[in-house]
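Hello Y.,

Per our agreement to keep a running log of every chain we model this quarter, I'm adding this entry. I've kept the format consistent with earlier entries: sequence first, then predicted structure.
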Amino acid sequence: MGKTREKEFEYELTHQDRIRERIHTHPAPDADWTYALQLECLFGDKWHAVIRYDDAHGRPHIDELHPDGRKNKRWLPYKGRHQSISEARSALMNNFERQRERYQKELQEYEQSPGN
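Predicted structure for the entry above:
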């Protein structure tokens, strides 16, 4: 049996915001595959993962990521992978500014908290 293959794409939204899309294909007889789409934002000189849509754990969901390492998981209805990817891409493109602002505010609070 062959190795899992990954295809990766980047969509630049601005010079400080991008969407990273990964498709993992599994060389099994049923050719199963999984996806992840993630908004990444540049703060200072470091790229941060801000929000991710994927179907790990066997079901589509959103992971809202936080600077302190926490994740808020929200399960999504299953609509088929192609539809889920299309909706995730659209949601990221339409809401990246709001997500960037949320994360930036949390990052500033996190960096000002004692011990960081």
